[in-house]
Write a structure and sequence with these properties.
Elements: E1 3-7, H1 15-25, E2 33-38, H2 64-69, H3 73-76, E3 82-83, E4 92-95, H4 111-122, E5 126-133, H5 143-146, E6 150-156, H6 159-179, E7 186-192, H7 198-205, E8 209-214, H8 217-225, H9 232-235, H10 238-261, H11 273-276, E9 291-293, E10 366-368, H12 412-418
Parallel strand pairs: 1-5, 1-6, 2-4, 2-5, 6-7, 7-8
Antiparallel strand pairs: 3-4, 9-10
Length: 430
């Protein structure tokens, strides 16, 4: 449905924590999935934070730079994803970020193809959240914000947070108006830490308020430093409730902008033409097997699912014969400007009215299906170790699912054995 960029700023306003909250709270219709991309040039934080190092740092964004140079970006991205869905059904996915900020210059020429690829998979039933962190909305990675349907800026409602956000919001609005989808893509995600209300901040900056998240440090620590995200108290916490409301506001803004930018297009949420033609005989329910949805422009020949011996695994492109043998499927390395890099005939409807500069990259066909697993998907991270029984309290506290530590029981006999003095006497340093 949409590509949403989440932007932070000075003072660590919580962009990654907000992006993770949106990932877990995002409403999904049957057959749809959501992907979180850690595109912060300063490095990712989820592997060592929310996942507590339970997944090795071999997956992620850093592997896409070499794949892009080899023309394999659209295939390699599916091998770098980690399943974060609580049910393990690959509905909520993560593309981990860089492990070292020194890796960011190697992605200078990959950001634009990646932006086109994310819009391509968005047309196949994926919502995409892009965590740009503190500096991702500037420099070479700014193309991810310019082509996003909504750019949500996280701001703390303190005087220091608002003062730091003002010049960044002004510069980001000018950049989106000049080179992006328009300044009306900007919205605010307010973290209610200070005394200023959401209405005051929205009126002062002249931007729509997408949501007000509570300043709940203990609940947010589950997303920033690790914890049990399947705990019922965490799911029902105020942070997750407000994140679900913010997700609804973001989707509403996306629909309004797409109707304005493409007034003749079908309303958001309507079934795509490819989905209507998936079953024989015209519109109707989709077939049970994988459906090949064209991402490339119409001028590029789209291989049919029947040209291969069997349906391709989920997340892998379906390629037709390349002349290596009769009926043998193969893959021909595309040259730049050929299949996989052909220029589209028109601009994406969400990028503005009229003619626009054609992107330099168009991803190839990706075969998707509602039940087939993702190829090369990282295993579901192991659940965090439970609290030891001797430190669990009899019941949970009322502050977002934290546990109260019990004081150890020490008898007077134990004290006298270790300290030959009166237990009631105060020990003083000599």
């Amino acid at each position: 449905m949409a590509v949403i960029a989440v932007v932070g700023g000075p003072g660590a306003p919580g962009a990654t924590t907000t992006a993770l909250a949106l990932l877990l709270a995002w409403p999904l219709r049957p057959g749809r999935r959501i992907l979180l991309v850690e595109a912060d040039p300063d490095g990712g934080a989820v592997l060592a934070g929310a996942l507590e190092g339970r997944v090795e740092a071999v997956y992620g964004l850093r592997n896409l730079a070499v794949a892009d140079r080899r023309g394999l970006l659209a295939q390699t991205i599916w091998e770098q994803l980690i399943d974060l869905s609580p049910e393990g059904n690959a509905e909520r996915l993560l593309l981990p970020g860089l492990t070292d900020p020194a890796q960011a210059p190697g992605l200078a020429y990959t950001w634009e193809p990646l932006a086109e690829l994310l819009h391509g998979i968005e047309q196949q039933g994926y919502d995409v959240i892009v965590d740009l962190g503190r500096s991702g909305a500037t420099g070479t990675s700014a193309v991810l914000a310019r082509r996003a349907d909504v750019v949500a800026v996280t701001v703390r409602s303190t005087l220091r947070g608002l003062s730091a956000a003002r010049p960044r919001l002004a510069a980001l609005g000018e950049d989106l108006a000049a080179a992006g989808t328009g300044a009306d893509a900007l919205g605010l995600l307010l973290v209610a830490e200070g005394p200023y209300s959401g209405a005051e901040v929205s009126r002062e900056f002249g931007l729509p308020l997408l949501g007000v998240l509570p300043y709940a440090t203990r609940t947010a620590r589950v997303l920033s430093d690790g914890g049990d995200t399947t705990d019922r108290r965490f799911i029902r916490s105020e942070l997750m409730r407000t994140a679900r409301s913010a997700a609804d506001e973001v989707q509403l803004l996306v629909r309004r902008r797409r109707q304005r930018l493409a007034p003749n297009a079908a309303p958001a949420g309507a079934p795509a033409a490819a989905a209507q033609l998936s079953a024989p005989g015209g519109p109707g329910p989709a077939a049970a097997g994988p459906v090949a949805v064209p991402v490339a422009p119409p001028s590029v020949p789209v291989p049919q699912a029947s040209s291969a011996p069997g349906p391709a695994p989920y997340g892998q492109p379906a390629y037709g014969p390349t002349g290596q043998g009769q009926g043998q499927p193969g893959y021909a390395q595309p040259g730049y400007g050929q299949f996989g890099y052909a220029e589209p005939a028109h601009a994406h409807p969400a990028h503005g009215q009229g003619e626009a500069e054609p992107p330099s990259y168009a991803p190839p066909v990706i075969t998707t299906g509602p039940v087939a697993p993702l190829a090369g998907l990282a295993p579901q991270p192991a659940a965090p170790a439970p609290f030891p029984a001797h430190v669990q309290a009899a019941g949970p506290t009322e502050d977002e699912g934290q546990y109260r530590l019990q004081q150890p029981m020490v008898t007077n006999d134990q004290i006298e054995d270790r300290y030959p003095c009166n237990p009631g006497e105060v020990l003083r340093a000599r």
